[in-house]
Amino acid sequence: MLWQQMGAQTVELGWDFYGPILLFVFLVALAVPVWAAIGAAASLMLVWSGALPLDLVGKKLFSGIDAFALTAVPLFILTGDVLVRTGLSRKFLDVAEALTQFAKGGFGSPTVLVCGMFAAISGSDAAGAAAVGRMTIDRLVESGYPRPYACALVAAGACTGILIPPSIAYIIIGLVLGISVSTLFLAAVIPGLAILISILATNIIMNRLYGWEGGGNIGAGEYFRRLGTSLKSGWYAFIVPGIIFYGIFSGRLTPTEAGATAVVVTIIMGFILGTLKLSDFPAMLVSSAKVNGVILPIIAFSIPLAEALAIIGVPQGFVAVATGVSDEPWVLILMMIAILIASGCVMETTPNIVILAPILKPLADNIGMNEIQFCIMMITALGVGFITPPLGLNLFVVAGLTGESILKIAYRAIPFVLFMLLVTLLIGFVPAISTTFLPEIYK
């Protein structure tokens, strides 16, 4: 039994905590769906601890997801699906390729950049990995990249799906911690771009070391000619991200309204271009519903679990244990980042946010970390976990897409992990990176 003395309060954790946690780990190891494992663990914790009457759990499941902000989640997912169906995502790739002609990263650089563009619309890393992977991996291999490295590059670039706003992850953490989603989107701009640049830089360095592909040998006149041609033929594809960013950051639209507007505009553009038909809608809606059907049950079942953890004193207990190890802020920040990366390796973003955010935030408060900075650091660290060998979830997405060995992809992903980890550390230790553009009240 673990207990720590916190002033006059004794925080004691027994089998009402450890039993449900062991049950959750056991069920996940048996490949039981995460939402079911969370639901079973929450129910057991509620029964043993008496934290919440079981007859209220059903009510909590529905009230937890009865939030206007969550409506943005299926809307951004559907926008991403429509973009792929209409072929607008390929216009992003053409423009990205023209923009990065000067880089010594060959086709790898536009691949990373288009991952960032797709992230700015869909808000999902898995969707980005699948959509961009289908467009680019074979061409990367034809350009000279080893297939495992091409897979690792797409997996790393797709991490920006939860790091560049608008992001589903920021919508969820804003809901869980009661923080303005628009504020989080604004704060995430510089950190998200920093991660994107770190991936671009890693690819350029790897190209220089191994000579897989050239690039960059182009004059200024030819560069702008090609860029002008690509923008002329695909400028309209940027109407959608333009609406999302302008609407949210100008304050004219909430994230939900921006998502709804983006869906409508994308559909209209698809009909105008003749690339979208009414017969495409059933497949699009089913595809989006499948992704949304994974996210919302996890949120619903995670909420009573998070409440039970709070009632039995887990956040306070964690703060006591952590500060018992060291009271140095830099040590505690490293501890939080390590926990988040490890969790990001083995579990999806949504349950990690709903379970870990309420536990770790008191520790961040204890060392004086700004709540906005904490949220950005948390989401970024979880994003690094998506490609951290050997269990990063994005590695499994691209492996399933290509049939390539997980271990080979994981090995090639190590340089990207190191550079992304460096950015995560900067976010954790330099508040200005995530608060520069924020009003004074949030700093």
UniProtKB/TrEMBL annotation:
Residues spanning the membrane: 21-49, 61-84, 149-173, 179-201, 235-253, 259-279, 291-312, 332-360, 372-393, 413-438
The UniProt record lists the keyword Transmembrane helix: yes
Keywords: Cell inner membrane, Cell membrane, Membrane, Transmembrane, Transmembrane helix, Transport
GO cellular component: plasma membrane
Topology relative to the membrane: Multi-pass membrane protein
Domain TRAP C4-dicarboxylate transport system permease DctM subunit: 22-433
Single GO MF annotation: transmembrane transporter activity
A Pfam family matched in the record: DctM
Keyword Transport: yes
Coiled-coil regions, chain positions: none
InterPro entries: DctM, TRAP_DctM
Protein's cellular compartments: Cell inner membrane
Function: Part of the tripartite ATP-independent periplasmic (TRAP) transport system.
Subunit structure: The complex comprises the extracytoplasmic solute receptor protein and the two transmembrane proteins.
Protein family (similarity comment): Belongs to the TRAP transporter large permease family.
Listed name of the protein: TRAP transporter large permease protein
Record organism: Palleronia salina
